[in-house]
Amino acid sequence: MQDNLYYIEIDKDLIPYRFDITLGNSVYFMEFRYNRTFDFFTVDLLNEAEEPLVFGEPLVYGKQLFEDMDDIRFPVSRLVPLDLSGVESRITFDNLNKTVFLYDLSETNTPEEGEAT
Q1: Which residue(s) pair with 41 in the sheet?
Q2: Is the CA virtual torsion 45, 47, 51, 54 positive or negative?
Q3: Which of 31, 82, 87, 103 can pair with 44 through a Cys bridge, CB separation 3.0 to 4.6 Å?
Q4: What is the per-residue pLDDT for 4?
Q5: What does the alpha-carbon distance between residue 48 and residue 37 come to, in Å, rounded to a whole number?
């Protein structure tokens, strides 16, 4: 099943960092941050014009990002951090992008060779 899902690559060595991403038919900017003291990640979401939509949304294992936002400016994509093997139950610095990935459950096609996942 994992081969059929897109995940968003998060380069922990660059945090805090921002990148653009297409979700659905819209371009957004995501900026990831890490709190070393309490070992958790947050994400800021900005629209294509780089206007902030949300600051400090925590990445919570198994919880869809931005699901509480009832606003048409937010992506319709279902972004959920998961470990498809079922071993992990929370996100840590050590397991993010090793066993826990931020999946876009709205996308189910495997990317072509050389494309970002």
Answers
A1: 34
A2: negative
A3: 31
A4: 72
A5: 32
User: In angstroms, rounded to a whole number, what is the distance separating the alpha carbons of residues 110 and 117?
Assistant: 8
- Enter the pTM of the model: 0.83
**DSSP state letters, the chain:** -GGG-EEE---GGG-SEEEEEEETTEEEEEEEEEETTTTEEEEEEE-TT--EEEEEEE--TT--TTTT---TTS----EEEE-TTS--SS--TTTBTTTBEEEETT--SPPPTTS--
The whole-angstrom separation of Cα 26 and Cα 75 is: 7
Question: pLDDT tens digit string along 14-58?
Answer: 999 999 999 988 999 999 999 999 999 999 999 999 999 999 999
Per cent of the chain over pLDDT 70 is 88
Terminal Cα distance for the chain, rounded: 15
Query: What type of residue sits at position 104?
Result: D
